[in-house]
Design brief:
The complex is a heterodimer of chains A (111) and B (124). By secondary structure, chain A is mainly beta. In chain A, strands 1, 3, 4, 7, 8 and 9 form a six-stranded mixed sheet that branches. Chain A is built from no helices and nine strands. Chain B is mostly beta strands and 124 residues long. Chain B has strands at residues 3-7, 10-12, 18-25, 33-39, 45-51, 58-60, 68-73, 78-83, 92-100, 110-114, 118-122. In chain B, strands 2, 4, 5, 6, 9, 10 and 11 form a seven-stranded mixed sheet that branches. A four-stranded antiparallel sheet of chain B has the order 1-3-8-7, with no helix packed on it. Classes of the chains: A mainly beta (111), B mainly beta (124). Chains A and B meet through strand 7 and strand 8 of A and strand 5 and strand 10 of B.
Chain lengths: 111, 124
Amino acid sequence: QSVLTQPPSVSGAPGQRVTISCTGSSSNIGAGYDVHWYQQLPGTAPKLLIYGNSNRPSGVPDRFSGSKSATSASLAITGLQAEDEADYYCQSYDSSLTHYVFGTGTKVTVL
Amino acid sequence: EVQLVESGGGLVQPGGSLRLSCAASGFTFSSYAMHWVRQAPGKGLEYVSAISSNGGSTYYANSVKGRFTISRDNSKNTLDLQMGSLRAEDMAVYYCARFLIRFGDVEGGFVDYWGQGTLVTVSS
C-alpha cells in the first residue's frame, strides 16, 4: 500500500472542474518534498503532467493545475474534456522509505 | 526527440529469469539517472529499480532486492534489468524511465520521459 493516498475515482461532466487529492504525511509531502503528477491514458505509458507541485511541461494545457499544502497536494482539471479520461498518479519522495513513491492512482471519468 | 524503447519482455515460468533492455536516444544518456517502473495488470505504478547517471549507485525495491540487477552501458546508451527467481507477482508491464533531477534537488526528482513498456508474464 502506498504512503500517498488518492481517491480511487472522480467524475465530472464536460466543462466541469474536478480535483484529485494526494494525501501524504510528515515524511513525504509534509516534509516539503515536491509533488509531481502523471497522466496515463488507457493502454498507454504514463506522461508527465505537473512537476514541482505546480509547473506544467511544454504542451500540457493550462486546464491542468497543481497545488500543495501541508501534507497534501491537489491536481485540478478545469473545463473537463472527454480526452481527459485517464488515470492520474501523484509522486513524491519519502524520507522514511528513502525513495520516491507513487500515489495509489485516481481514475477520472467524464460523464 | 527523446526515445526510450524497451525490449525483452515475454512469458517466463515461475522461478525463471528474464533480461529487459532499454535503448535510449535523443539525449545525453550518461547525464541522467534511469529507473525501471512497473505496473501489474489493473494496478498502480511501482518503482522497481534505479541507477545513477554513472552507474555507481543503485536502488531496489524491497520486493525485488536480491533477485533483480540493474545496469547501464553509457557507451551504448542502454539500460538493462536482469530479473531472476521470477514470481507471479512480478508479472507486469515494465517501463524504462528517464529521471530528472533539477538544480541538484535529488529528493525532488521525477520521471520526465517514459518508454512504451514491455510486458512480463510469469506463468507455468
